[in-house]
Amino acid sequence: MKPDPVTLQILTSSLEYASEEMGLALRNSAYSPNIKERMDHSAAVFDSEGRLLAQAEHIPVHLGSLPWGLKNLIRYCAREGMELAKDSMVVSNDPYITGTHLNDVTVAAPIFHGGSLTAFAVNKAHHADVGGAFPGSISMKARVLSEEGFVLEPSILWRRNAFVESNVERFAAASRTPTERKGDLKAQVAANFSGARRVKALLDKYGLEAFELAAARSFKHSEKLTLARLRRFRKGTFTASDFLEGPAGEDLKLTAKVRISPSGIDVDYTGTSKQVDYPLNAVFGVTLSGAYFVVRCLLGDDIPPNHGAFAPVTVHAPPGTVLNPTSPHPVGGGNVETSQRNADVVFRALAASVPGRVPAAAGGSMNNVMIGGSGKSAPWAFYETIGVGLGGGRETDGLDGIQANMTNTMNTPIEEIERSLPIRMVRYEFRPDSSGAGRFRGGSGLIRGYMALEAGTIFTVLADRERHLPWGLLRGRAGSGTEVTLERKGKRTRIRTKSTLELDVGDVIEVRTAGGGGYGDPKKRGPSKIRRDVNNGLLTQGRARREYVRLSA
Q: Of 222, 256, 281, which closes a domain?
């Protein structure tokens, strides 16, 4: 007898919870601040064919690439004769296989029922250092993938209830912080155990037939909802371009042509700049993530995020471009910065198709900070990203100082940084006058200042939107661009947003992140809202007069 609809819904909801529980297990058992504090990880459950069953509300750039990466892993294992055996797990960080960059390590656990492969529990986590020339493993200096850090081809991490120590050791040994790497790998294995345990319990209770029927029903439901929501979009082809800033001041163009039809959405990136010999290339899995993220934002979060929800979305990025590079081009920054610009350009293209649904541009950068040194007792490395302002929308101001679009992490508590590392945080606050003016203003960016307490500290910043500002919509103004400064011996110097420097004791790096673009005519912003922003320190009186009062005079 076929299961009833209530049972099928219980199965579907249980898989979603299993993914969330995986993320909690990973966070709670991780060693690094980047995972245990910032939650820079993602988790999902898949069927035996690598089709997404359910995912946790984690990192968009991770989640969109996981189905692509898992299918690549499955094909790689079949091609190389690697058995996906019971009680085993496969690990890799090769971005051309798993879909993001070297710091993101993917661990996949096959799940068996009745002797047959039935599902996968998969997670991806950002390891703060995987080797390479500089602490944090991301900089503009790399010219090929191997210069960014250790490349771990798909390998068996766990077999017959034990770690394959040789694979753990060669990965950890390449890092400046091997103990932390081992600890985070253990946390990833623990997360997959949690997910596999939940899936096995569902299979034991309801049976394989009900499990597969629930998956098919959920796929069909999500696809049907997606196509129904698409009917609200204006049909046609919509094109937009935006720019990413290269390390020497050059511009990389991203172009998206988005075609809306009754059968779905097609995103074509023909016209995008060719791949480059520095790490702003984004592997195709990252590009998929950006397109999926924008579509999901505009269609509504009540559509279950599974294989069916993304089936109507097709993406084409010409090989050899910054959105679909060829190995071994470096890709470290493509995952964090190019991904953000990809989301911006797809949003901008769709603004004409769904008027009022698309907000102005967010700050458009993850503002990556990588710091490290030799240490008094052992080498150390630290990684974090800094929030920006969201763009204003049809009815609301943009949020202030928040991780935007392709990232969904927390901030690193100052107490954790100063307790663990030779760094003093000297400033952390909202950035005044950074929001784009509009009837609904953009969100304010942040100011975050780092003082080195140890000589020879290596500081790398990888950010964007320094020159190409976050755009406004419907006469809204652009948000302020990113600024990075070095204060040394009382002298303050502006440095590029893609820089690596060696700091001495007392040197201070200050990162001022971009604000969101404004939405609508600034003349129509209410005086009480302007006064509130001035009173809260988000807007100076001089800027208020220039952007608002003078305009309405």
A: 222
- Contact by Cβ (8 Å): 474, 521: yes
Whether residue 330 contacts residue 148, with contact meaning beta carbons closer than 8 Å, is answered with yes
d(CA 201, CA 194): 11
- pTM for this model (two decimals): 0.94
For residues 150 and 385, give the distance between their C-alpha atoms in angstroms, rounded to a whole number. 22
Residue 406 counted as domain residue: yes
Strand bridging mode 446-452 / 508-512: antiparallel
* Percent with pLDDT over 90 in the chain: 93
- Split into its structural domains, the chain has a count of 2
Pairing of strands 313-316, 264-268: parallel
For residue 435, the Cα-to-chain-centroid distance in whole angstroms is 23
With a cut of 60, say whether residue 277 has pLDDT above it: yes
Sorting pLDDT into bands at 50, 70 and 90, what band is 403?
Answer: very high
Per-residue pLDDT of 332-369, as tens digits, reads: 999 999 999 999 999 999 999 998 999 999 999 999 99
Q: Which residues of 290-302 are buried (b: 16+ CB within 10 A; e: fewer)?
A: bbbbbbbbbbeee
- Position of tokens 């019971």? 86
Last residue of a domain, one of 222, 250, 283: 222
- For residue 404, give its domain range: 359-553
The number of C-alpha atoms within 13 Å of 336 and in the hemisphere containing its C-beta is: 32
Contacts of 207 (CB under 8 A, 6+ apart): none
Q: Taking residues 472-490, what's their average pLDDT?
A: 97
DSSP 198-257: HHHHHHHHH-HHHHHHHHHHHHHHHHHHHHHHHTTSPPEEEEEEEEEE-TTS-EEEEEEE
> Tens digits of per-residue pLDDT, 104-144?
999 999 999 999 999 999 999 999 999 999 999 998 999 99
Helix (H) or strand (E) holding 462: strand 457-462
178, containing H or E segment: helix 178-206
Q: How far apart are CA 363 and CA 511, in angstroms?
A: 13
